[in-house]
Design goal:
This protein is mainly beta. About 15% of the residues lie in helices and about 35% in strands. The N and C termini lie far apart (about 70 Å).
């Protein structure tokens, strides 16, 4: 026997759903009991969740942090374009209001994106020369 059950959006890990009349039927006859399902929400590798708030980290080139510019932010609803101001610091947070987990009221939480500097492991000769020039100028 299989049962199709609708799982509400934003359900919490460990929540229990009660499905009336889908449990076992007593041996001596009568009505079927209720089926209880304990929900396990699979952990995502990109997003972390705390209540209705979603957290993620995005690595952005240092040139974009310094000069500002458009970035593609991955959300649970798909990629969105956002603009960073010039001088955005590594560790700053971008709050996407209403892009988190839906609550019982239907209102969604926020998605907080931590912006981190993407420091390359290897640089070309040209990149090193440019960074040396910036270093000499105090940047």
């Amino acid at each position: 026997m299989s049962v199709t059950v609708g799982i509400p959006a934003g359900i919490d890990n460990g929540a229990v759903l009660q499905v009336q009349g889908e449990g076992e039927v007593p041996d001596h006859g009568g009505q079927a009991g209720d089926l209880f399902l304990r929900i396990r929400v699979k952990q995502d590798t990109t997003f972390q969740r705390e209540g209705q708030t979603i957290f993620s980290t995005m690595y952005v080139p240092i040139s974009t942090l310094a000069l500002g510019g458009k970035i593609q932010v991955e959300t649970v609803d798909g990629a969105e374009t956002h603009t960073l101001s010039s001088g955005t610091g590594s560790g700053e947070e971008l709050v996407l209001q209403g892009k988190g987990v839906p609550g019982r009221s239907g209102r969604r939480g926020d998605h907080v994106v931590k912006i981190e500097a993407d420091i390359p492991d290897k640089l070309t000769k040209e990149q090193k020369a440019l960074l040396e020039q910036l270093k000499e100028q105090g940047l």
